[in-house]
Write a structure and sequence with these properties.
Radius of gyration of chain A: 20 Å
CATH architecture of chain B: Alpha-Beta Complex
Distance between the termini of chain B: 29 Å
Structural class of chain B: alpha+beta
Oligomer: heterodimer
Number of helices of chain A: 10
Number of strands of chain A: 0
Mean pLDDT of chain B: 85
CATH superfamily of chain B: Oxidoreductase, molybdopterin-binding domain
Helix content of chain B: 10-25%
Number of domains of chain A: 1
Distance between the termini of chain A: 45 Å
Low-confidence stretches of chain B: 1-53
Shape of chain B: globular
Strand content of chain A: under 5%
Structural class of chain A: mainly alpha
CATH class of chain B: Alpha Beta
Bound molecules: protoporphyrin IX containing FE
Chain lengths: 205, 323
């Protein structure tokens, strides 16, 4: 198990390794800062989707073996989001904090990206076993923020594209399916419990 | 970082130096993370695209230097970057797509339709278009609306000189341009990313300005397909999307022409599209730009630094409204 986790982390770090060797060898293209921004942003989004896919895959196909890797994927997603933000602040804007504030306030896609990033911070901060135990049911509720973050990440991508919406549209479709499945299950289970205990639920309401 | 050379040096040397300096900067910036990598070397060797020297076009003969007053002494962008990092959606929306896919464009034979408010309209073979015009080198800044920029040594001739040959009528107030529309040669046109064909336009006085040129080459050589072969517009004081590529039609007309990006998103792209650090694109600040090859951004200049020559064209206009 330990080794598997290590292997997943190593695999998750390959894009970073690719960026580092590209930076060292000068093969990140004509606009390396852009390449780094796009690569880190893309992997933050993809790993976030992996995290969200674990529950549906378990329910549909019984792949419970994936569950232990959900946190790993989530933390990797957060790491790439941090690198993405750091690239933007350090390499793109050269630590011009006034420009950061202006962008966050005035460019809708950056406002959304920044909000998404802020949503991920408490999730990463409460990812330890101790936090899960301490927060109990509140942990589950808090971590539903990841749904909002996934939508935010996709909106961020849709809004930054100039004309070719193909790639963000694919991600939007994936997020819609992953969240739609949950909504569907939630509605069905509500209907089932309503049917089983009609008085209890109507009294609750 | 701007590299100022005290005296002119040969162009090839300039290009090499800029590649060298770019690498060096990134070595420094990346040094922090470099240690992490030591183990992964052999595996990673397989997944990088090595920078192969691009196939270069034929040298253009008889090119003379353009008017020195119109040239910049800034370091030209590395040839590889200028030919591998392009926005030319006719071949795909990724910056690398034009270099990858523009091979399918056939630039011979090529002709240009000149029509509208001219005394002598016609469908003119490219050789005829070019024949009377001596080729000049014009080293210009190129500022993309996406907040990056380059310095390109174009080879071409003044657009105004060409237009005069067709004898514009007094009704000719605008010039409209069109790119080739042929999805077989331009595979990006198979999807409706823009309303093909790509169209652009200028006011007549802008078109007659000595800075506005039609280019047939860059770096002393024929234009590579991905840079708009065989004939493209270069208007250095406007955002790059105005400088339409692979032109097949020039139409003089009374009304302001349809222009592609302006039609796509009028709030984001104006008809004039003069480089203006005061007017932000809704999604990008236009105050600063990254010169390709540099790491730090530099301030963007009004009219891309050509204000002295062109600002008078816009006297009395509110450029915040007519952006
Ligand atoms: C912290 C605040 C954030 C800022 C300031 C920010 C900024 C940016 C910028 C400047 C770009 C490039 C835009 C362009 O090239 O025109 C970008 C692209 C992107 N960002 Fe963010 N971002 C933020 C947070 C996030 C987060 C949290 C995610 C995902 C979880 C994300 C995912 C992406 C994606 C997928 C792209 C596009 C990559 C591509 O084009 O392939 N960003 N972001």
């Amino acid at each position: 198990m330990r080794q598997l986790q290590a292997a997943v982390v190593a695999a998750g770090l390959l894009p970073l390794a690719w960026l580092i060797q590209g930076a060292v060898r000068g093969t990140l293209g004509a606009n390396p800062v852009e390449t780094i921004t796009h690569t880190t942003g893309g992997w933050a989004l993809r790993l976030l989707l992996v995290t969200l896919a674990v529950t549906p895959l378990r329910r549909l196909f019984g792949w419970s073996a994936l569950v232990p890797f959900r946190r790993t994927a989530g933390l990797l997603a957060f790491s790439y989001a941090c690198l993405h933000f750091a690239t933007y602040v350090a390499l793109d804007l050269g630590f011009d904090l006034a420009a950061v504030v202006e962008d966050v306030a005035e460019r809708p896609y950056i406002t959304v990206g920044f909000t998404t990033f802020l949503l991920l911070v408490p999730l990463a901060a409460t990812s330890t076993r101790a936090a899960v135990r301490r927060l109990g049911r509140r942990w589950v509720r808090l971590h539903r923020l990841v749904y909002v973050a996934a939508v935010g990440a996709v909106v961020h991508f849709l809004w930054l594209v100039k004309a070719d919406l193909r790639e963000p549209a694919i991600y939007a479709g994936i997020v819609a399916s992953l969240l739609g499945a949950r909504l569907w299950w939630w509605l069905s289970s509500r209907r089932a419990s309503l049917a089983a205990h009609p008085e209890a639920t109507s009294a609750e309401r | 970082m701007l590299i100022r050379h005290p005296e002119p040096i040969p162009e090839r040397e300039v290009t090499d130096a800029s590649i060298f300096l770019r690498r060096r900067q990134f070595l420094q910036n990346a040094a922090v993370g470099a240690a992490v990598l030591t183990a992964g070397g052999p595996f990673l060797a397989g997944c990088t695209d090595a920078q192969e020297p691009p196939a270069r076009g034929p040298k253009l003969p008889g090119v003379k230097a353009g008017p020195p007053a119109l040239a910049t002494d800034e370091t030209p962008t590395a040839y590889h970057d200028a030919t591998a990092y392009n926005n030319f959606y006719e071949f795909g929306t990724d910056k690398g797509d034009p270099a990858r896919y523009a091979g399918s464009l056939r630039t011979e034979p090529w002709s240009v339709t000149v029509e509208g408010e001219v005394a002598k309209p016609g469908v003119v073979p490219l050789e005829e278009i070019l024949r009377p015009h001596p080729l000049e080198e014009r080293i210009y800044r190129l500022r993309c609306v996406e907040a990056w920029s380059m310095v390109i040594p174009w080879v071409g001739f003044p657009l105004g000189d060409l237009l005069k040959r067709f004898e514009p009528t007094s009704n000719a107030r605008y010039v409209a341009f069109e790119t080739l529309h042929d999805p077989e040669q331009m595979p990006g046109q198979k999807r409706r990313v823009l309303d093909w064909p790509y169209r652009e336009g200028l006011r007549m006085d802008e078109a007659m300005h000595p800075l506005a040129i039609l280019a047939v080459g860059m770096y002393g050589e024929a234009l590579p397909n991905q840079n708009g072969a065989p004939l493209r517009l270069v208007v250095p004081w406007k955002y790059g999307f105005k400088s339409i590529k692979s032109i097949v039609k020039i139409r003089l007309q009374r009304e302001q022409p349809y222009t592609s990006w302006n039609d796509q998103a009028p709030r984001e792209y104006g008809f004039h599209a003069n480089v203006n650090p005061e007017v932000d694109h809704p999604r990008w600040s236009q105050k600063r730009e990254r010169r390709i090859g540099d790491y730090r951004k530099r301030p963007t200049l009004p009219f891309n630094g050509y204000g002295e020559q062109v600002a008078s064209l816009y006297a009395g206009m509110d450029l915040r409204v007519l952006f």
